[in-house]
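One-letter codes give the sequence; backbone shape is given numerically. An example follows:

. . .
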Amino acid sequence: MAKTKAAKTKAPKPHALNIPVPPRAKLEPDTQAYFAKCDEKLGFVPNVLLSYSFDAKKLRGFTEMYNELMLAPSGLSKLEREMIAVVVSSINHCYYCLTAHGAAVRALSGDPKLGEQMVMNYRVADLSPKMRAALDFAAKLTEMPDKIVEADRAALRKAGWSDRDIWDIAATASFFNMSNRMAAAIEMLPNDEYHAQSR
């Protein structure tokens, strides 16, 4: 009688570089605690965090900037900031961010269709004029940063955004342009769990 043994599946590498992800027990205590919180809230640790985990200082810089932009108090809601992330990532064709932040848009909006529209072409979505202005600005900042002029900021003010909001729109778009380029450079792979979320 043949013995059947459950194959131990090894987690796929989060990116294409030969930089191993350190074992959880070897990480700094604060990183271990942060990853434990991810496990508790999400059920997994996002591959972007695993990718940065080889260098505690880089991981801290990334997470502090991300948390400040995406979770701190702002005139933009969490959903609005996630929509900016997805529009920027759509223009940049960033597989990782489209998968992860597309899932966030679906979850926060409760609308799978909106998530798909943001990923494919935000212009087909039924958006408020105010949000459309923010996404148009984020798109232009991504595609033609040298063409941003005062009229672009004036259009945001006219749509109802404050100058502090304009800072947050620009900072969110800028962060995800950086993040998209890093993900492309190392072929960062999204966690499989994102694909099925909130559909």
